[in-house]
Design a protein that fits this description.
It is built from one helix and eight strands; from the N terminus they run αββββββββ. Strands 1-2-3-4-7-8 form a six-stranded antiparallel sheet, with helices on one face. Strands 5-6 form a two-stranded antiparallel ribbon. It is rod-shaped, with a radius of gyration of 29 Å.
Length: 154
């Protein structure tokens, strides 16, 4: 008695198994778990430049004003507004930056110094640099000394 064997005992099917699909989904989840927080941190760090740039523009405005006056000025009396600020940006001595990420005030104006403070708004309040919260950020001018804090955020 002779036994006959099928010449094609294994049938090849096309497609993916459920296990293979689940493994791919888990891998995508792990990659996104690392990528999303890094992306959010990157966006906040890049948005921080809006506050820093505005503070530095105000610092230049203060120095320009002080060259011809005996004291520094408050934000309410800023005589020039850079083109990147919205025309309604200054309200009651508080400047709202272009994308409304920061509110900025100038306090402690005198003949020798002032303090510029930028306070984050919205999602930007969660911005940090190496575990140091970046709100509020301050720029203090006292005589010939300029102090920027928190230093990790500058």
């Amino acid at each position: 008695m002779k036994m006959e064997f099928d010449k094609k005992p294994f049938v090849k099917t096309k497609g993916f198994t459920l296990i293979e699909l689940m493994i791919v989904i888990v891998i995508i989840g792990v990659v996104l778990g690392f990528a999303i927080p890094s992306y959010i941190s990157y966006v906040q760090r890049s948005n921080r430049t809006e506050g820093i740039t505005t503070m530095q523009a105000l610092q230049l405005a203060e120095e320009k004003f002080r060259m011809t006056n005996s004291t520094y000025q408050t934000l309410s009396s800023v005589s020039f507004v850079p083109s990147f600020w919205p025309s309604t940006g200054i309200t009651s001595g508080v400047l709202t930056t272009e994308n409304s990420l920061y509110t900025i005030v100038i306090t402690g104006t005198s003949a020798t110094g002032y303090t510029i403070t930028a306070t984050a708004q919205g999602d930007q309040v969660n911005d940090d640099a190496g575990g140091t919260a970046c709100t509020p950020m301050t720029l203090v001018v006292s005589g010939y000394t300029i102090t920027k804090s928190p230093t990790a955020c500058w």
